[in-house]
Specification:
This protein is an alpha/beta fold and 564 residues long. It contains 22 helices and 11 strands. 54% of the residues lie in helices and 8% in strands. It has an 8-stranded parallel beta barrel, surrounded by 4 helices. Helix 2 packs across helix 5 (99-126) and helix 5 packs across helix 6. The chain starts with a helix and ends in a 9-residue tail after the last strand. It comes from Astatotilapia calliptera.
Amino acid sequence: MASTLSQWFRSLRVKLLQRYEHQPFVSCLAGLYGCQWKHYKRSQPEGCCCNKLEGASFAVLVAAFCLTLLFLYFWGQAKNDYNDFDWFNFGNLGFWFPWSVVLLAVAVVFFTYVTVLVLLAVCLLSEGQKLYLHWSHKIGILVSLTVSVIAMAVLSNLWSKEWRTLLLSFQVTAPFLHVGGVLLMTSLAWPVALHFFRMKSTVRRGLIMAVYLTVLLSLYLIPLGLYSPCIKEKGTLGPAPALIGHRGAPMLAPENTLMSFEKAVEAGCDSLETDVTISFDGVPFLMHDYTLQRTTNIHEVFPNRTNTPAARFTWNELESLNAGDWFLSHNPFGTAGSLNADDRQRAGNQSVCSLQAFLQLAAQTGKLVIFDLYRPPRDHPFRDTWIQRTLEVIQNESSIHSSQVLWLPSNLRALVQELDPELQQTSGSRLPLEELQRNHIVKLNLDYTSMSAELIREYTAVNITTNLYVISQPWLYSLAWCAGVHSVTTNAPQLLSTISSPLFIMSPDEYKLMWILTDLMSFVLILLIFFFHRWRERELAFCTGSRIKLEGGTYSKFKKGNLP
């Protein structure tokens, strides 16, 4: 029995000390990485993994990987605002194109390309091979790096708020990014340990270990600085935020049309949001933009007035416009194709909606309403009486109750309160509590990037609820839910209404357990890998009594007779 066990351990030791070069696999890796299909030179198993030039190329490759990953993550998390980005470009370029999707595709292509090269390099290093990156890949890496840097610089300049979105996303993704990062560094322990124990230069060995350990320890300790409202004790999660249809349900129908608001009601919205402009003859109507170019066929009906402010048109002129065809032709959310034939026909026949018709729909369905009110331009007949005219429609021309109206305009708020004290005063600014209470504010309407669980609790304590706009992605909705937000304005009520619980929620104890187990298992595996390579390199040196030799250009297998 003892003899059998001894033979088994001896056999295992022989197999562990054998060096294998998986020639077809290595040749394929070298061909893809360095385009050396015919003249690939096999490296010696000792020494540095590459010369200085290739070392610099590998460093640039790693930098490109990090930046393309950041670019992809940055723009991927910005999906909530793709529609705003595309219409921003429409306003500047004058034509519609889904630039957001194109930019995402570019980010995916560059990241995929760089990631493949990194994987090839890691595999070559794991096989004990030296790196020789082909010049075409070096150019490709520089292009990927340059485009990513320029794109992020331009987006940061034009769309800086997306950095705040990125920071918010970490409150949901950070626990999983931590696990993924630790797994990645654990898997890299094999090639790092292999080349660490083969390197003869003490400086290089110290440098590679310093970099590796710095990154590893940073990942281990990242959870110490992590905050997420979704890491909370069980039983403390409040009700789901109510849904406010942003210009209706703009993924299912043309925005700010009766069809859009009806779809929002069908999707389960508790409130409806819109934008109000006063026509030249005093009819309040729904229009978000300053002009009619984007959401009507103004270029066909009034081709010489495409740049004229919407408030300069009379109601009869506005009624002659089509406000639905653009939705089918531009397909702003990529959802128009999902409409059935009846809905497509109905969408294409929508017209500009009046405030009176909008309020009647809200009154009939029992929904709350909130709207931005735009002051007419100079020389407009209702420039100084636009608020009084809007109040007239609410009080005298519709059956809606004033308590159903969340009054958002800040102009002449004291006068509005005096004329109609039942309106629910709503502020679009995060003002001091004393000022909010003095103005009888009952709700705050804030950009979602202002999300703060602490501030929401402070406002709730004095009976001020919070609404965040515009939230259309499930992860953002989940984060708002965990933070205690009371309602959200959304482009996607049909999607968010199906979410029964936050996408990510766990107790502090569960998160600590996940964190500790992940770091502990990683630490143990890395230690085992380093001890294995240290033992193997020492045993190989002892068994051979000299440097490892190559037979026929490939790593030789040590035969049992060579071992003591």
